[in-house]
Amino acid sequence: MREPATKKAIKKFILHLHPLKIDKRAIAFNRTFGLGGIAALLFTILFITGMMLKFVYIPSAGQAHDSILSLKNDIIFGNLLRNLHYWSAMLLVVVAFLHLVRVFYSQSLFYERRKNWLYGLLLMFLVVSANFTGYLLPWDQLSFWAVTIMTNLLSYIPLFGEGLADLIRDGDTVGETTLLRFYHFHTGLLPLLMVFFMAIHFWLVRKAGGVALPKIEKSKKVDTHPHLTYKEAFVALIIIMALLLFSIFVDAPLLEKAKPTVSPNPSKAPWYFMGFQELLMHVHPVFGSFIIPLAVTVFFIAIPFIKYQEIEPGAWFHSKKGRKMTIASAVFSAIFTFAFAIINDAVFDFSNRLAEWPSLISTGVLPTLLYLAPVTAFLYYFKIKHKANRPELMIGAVTIILSAYITMMLTGSLLRGEGMQLIF
Amino acid sequence: MKKLKINRRKFFKRFLYSLVTLQFVYILFRLFKPQKEAADIEKFYDAGDVSFFQKGKMYPFGSEQFYLHRLTDGGFLALSSRCTHLGCTVQFNANNKRLECPCHASAFNTNGEVLSPPATRALDYYPVVFKNNRVLVDVNHPVRRNKHDNSQVKYV
């Protein structure tokens, strides 16, 4: 009678994560899309494949690239292992982002979930940092220059930017010691921190009573096992299958060994930072690398702490009006941001036209205000004309920020060719 | 908001915790802080004999990532080939007599001054000294500068 014992063990273990009985609405797939769970699964896959890769990889400028070539060519399933790690990491950034978006739009960040929203933001930062530090490790032309560009973007932060970039790189250029540093961040410190904060994140979900749901009079509860656990296993299997298949057919990119004397044309930051690089092409570095990112971060932290008259935790987009606003804001922001980027360069051209002004004003304050004016007008229109309340306006504002970043990211990654010129 | 109450015991407890945390942060900071070597003439890069360099020409030193420019008046200027915009490696275009960055199309003249943006700062330069008629370049200590001025050019 081995099976019942195993079953019991599984059941008992799972009950550390889930309650015994669960609201039927909480386990409907389109309530959470399983995104948090998928992120945790991807972390596990990354942990396991990463542990295996550590046995082959040599973190030195001379041997890193060769060790990856030998992994690809000489070791059985070595290439698959690397692909699996690479694509899981890329998927994790996407899934973690979607998870954040889901939590926001389903309004699951207020009251008892406030603190967990902050831990979530911290985890998002750790996911991106882990991805970015891993990006350098193959030590090929792509990774070397992407990290060079990204660390130099940091050095534009006023006052401490230069010191921060030197601290991350261990010197003023990307080199042998940078690789060692990134290797240990990637395989030691960051996973450790992530495990720690993930535990808190899960615990706070349970403490808040699970997934946020709109209040109804009578809710129907079902047993967690098998109703939720089978669903979880099903999604996990699909993700693992899809990742495996994708990794069999699509290779992770690997260019020639890094050459510090030859920059490829164009050189780009990793794709998820391209919105940031695109922003820096249009506004003054102090704004692009410091004031605007800081403002956005503070705004995201502040969302659940602002005073609202009416909040509906668990209600998608707050209301029907909120849903309409989301679509309108996303379309408006995508078109406006793209148009503004082009008009700012082609028509305004402040850096040349107002050459005698201080550049902080002509390319920093002025474009920022010119961008913010129509955005404010757009939100104000919704407030007056459609009587949007504060949570709905907040949804509009967040949508504008997210849509603008995605637009810039896509412009920078897909529409810029040689010399970072637009291609069309 | 609860009223914050601090008595002596609490105060010392927090004070000690903060001290320990600060120490830990400081140790971490020192661990990560890049080591700055002092200028040591033994570690300077020997670029060659003074008489070898013709006036008004640029000499690339790819492995050390600098260009040695001998000005028409005989002065020496060792320019870093790191673009001041985002750190790509600039290439010398002999036809236009300018250094061009392949990444975002910044351009610099032979003294490292910006000819076209997005770069805003002149190229860094390395200190040059002369010893026994040889040109020695301190390749470990690039000097940041906003503008080029003649005091940065060294004469034999």
From TrEMBL, chain A:
Domain Cytochrome b/b6 N-terminal region profile per the UniProt entry, residue ranges: 1-214
PANTHER family: CYTOCHROME B
Superkingdom of source: Bacteria
Membrane topology: Multi-pass membrane protein
Keyword Transmembrane found: yes
Localisation per UniProt entry: Membrane
Membrane-traversing stretches: 33-57, 84-105, 117-137, 183-205, 228-250, 286-306, 327-348, 360-381, 393-415
Coiled-coil residue spans: none
Domain Cytochrome b/b6 C-terminal region profile positions: 214-393
Organism for this UniProt entry: Marinilabilia rubra
Gene Ontology molecular-function annotations: electron transfer activity; metal ion binding; oxidoreductase activity
Alphabetized UniProt keyword annotations: Electron transport, Heme, Iron, Membrane, Metal-binding, Transmembrane, Transmembrane helix, Transport
GO terms under biological process: respiratory electron transport chain
Gene3D superfamilies: Cytochrome Bc1 Complex, Chain C (1.20.810.10)
Cellular component, GO, one term: membrane
Name of the protein this chain belongs to: Cytochrome B6
Automatic annotation (TrEMBL), chain B:
GO annotation, cellular component aspect: membrane
Listed cofactors: [2Fe-2S] cluster
Molecular function terms from GO: 2 iron, 2 sulfur cluster binding; metal ion binding
Iron in keyword set: yes
Lineage, uppermost ranks: Bacteria, Pseudomonadati, Bacteroidota, Bacteroidia, Marinilabiliales
Lineage top rank: taxon: Bacteria
Keyword Cell wall biogenesis/degradation appears in the UniProt entry: no
Ranges for domain Rieske: 45-137
InterPro entries noted in UniProt: Rieske_2Fe-2S, Rieske_2Fe-2S_sf, Rieske_Fe-S_prot, Rieske_Fe-S_prot_C
Assigned keywords, A-Z: 2Fe-2S, Disulfide bond, Iron, Iron-sulfur, Membrane, Metal-binding, Transmembrane, Transmembrane helix
Transmembrane stretches, start-end: 12-32
Protein known as: (2Fe-2S)-binding protein
